[in-house]
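Same chain as my last thread, 389 residues:
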Amino acid sequence: MSEKYHQQSVYSVFIIQLALAVFLMIALLNGRRDLVLLTLLMLVIMTSARWWSCVSLNRLRIEIRTDRSKLFPGEELQVGVRVENQKWLPVCFRLEMFFAGGLQPTEEDTTRECGLLWHQGTEFQWKLRTLQRGVYRLGSAQITAGDFFGFYLRARKLERAPVEIVVYPRIRPVRTPAYPAKNFFGQPGARSPVQDPIYILGTRDYHHWQPARYIHWKASARHDRLQEKVFEPSSQAKILFLLDAASFARHEAGADFERAIEVAASTALQCHRKGHALGFLTNATVEGGTNRVAVSHSPHKLSDILEILARLKMQTVGALAESLRRGAPMPWGVSAVCFSYEIDEETRAVEILCKLRRIPVIFLLCRQAPGTGNAAMTLDEMAVEAVPT
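reply #2:
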């Protein structure tokens, strides 16, 4: 924190001091005791005011907090700033907040003024609207305090608050490509080692080692003996999302890069709602995070992917195929969705590697060249026009 000293008005304070010195001289020459006392009192007040301003920022505690730290574009968060005067000397101050470009205050005035007595505190509130995806830190602040007369003021610059705001990509309506679904556990029915209570093949005589919740009571009443449900394994997709940032950086396609991120986030959300296992891998620079998420059914996978997409920069850290080659082994039955600007040597290397690993891959492109094939779609084909309400 840097501290600066300045006077509210250099000329006004100098004129007052000069006038007091003249009055004191006149009072002494004329023997006016009352004027001498008044002038001395004013000089004492101004000296005390200067000392007051020197200690006004001491033991002034400032705490910044928010009600949310992760949200989508267009949503609002509330920022609270609490100021506490932890000394016996009263203080008047002015607090001015500066917010990052992606966080827009809902009101134009971001300055607050207040006076605090000894060991007293107050809190100010601001509402911010998020504009675009990214990771932001709450902007710096400046607090100006001084004496109650406003003769002398001191300003302290507060560094950026350690509060991190993560703005996810914008979610848009998109079409979901058809992913090949695989049986997790091979043979369906009674030979499956893991049973899925959603898919019922039929019933059979109850076995004592099965949980009682698998008993089919209606069938048991009909057959006059206990019957248990026979399940089939679930058929769900495992989706690995790939994002090639090199193709976007090569064409300096920042707007298309943002659009691809939004489509990737929207598609991941749809897959999550359908119960698919999700994973993510990119060769883009990730600000303060990792560039990969392993494929699994964890309920936190969607938020992990959205946070990586929020932290992405259109800068590469290597080839996507090399990152895929060095990555962790893929579980059986994975399908890949690769986002790229166009089909180039890098995407063809990814396609060859996926074929070697028997991973079906679909390419979602900003620009599709003739003869690309059915395994590629454009982002325009993925888009769905919003229905007016």
